[in-house]
Amino acid sequence: MVAGGFSGAPTGEFEAKITSTVIISCVMAATGGLMFGYDIGISGGVTAMPSFLKHFFPIVYERTIEENAGANSNYCKYDNQYLQLFTSSLYLAALVSTMFAGSINRKLGRRPVMLMGGVIFIVGAIINAAAVNIAMLIIGRILLGVGVGFGNQAVPVFLSEIAPTRIRGALNILFQLDVTIGILIANLVNSGTAKIEGGYGWRISLGLAAVPALLLCVGAILVDDTPNSLIERGKLEEGKAVLKKIRGVDNVDAEYNELVQASNVAKQINNPWSKLFKRNNRPMLIIAISLQVFQQFTGINAIMFYAPVLFSTIGFKSNASLYSAVITGLVNVLSTLVSVYSVDKVGRRMLLLQACAQMLLCQVSVAIVLGMKLTDHSNLMSTGLAIVVVILVCIYVAGFAWSWGPLGWLIPSETFPLETRSAGQSITVFANMLFTFLIAQSFLSMLCNMKFGIFLFFSGWIVIMALFTIFFLPETKNVPIEEMTEKVWGQHWYWKSYVEVEDD
Question: Domain residues for 402?
Answer without folding.
Answer: 20-497
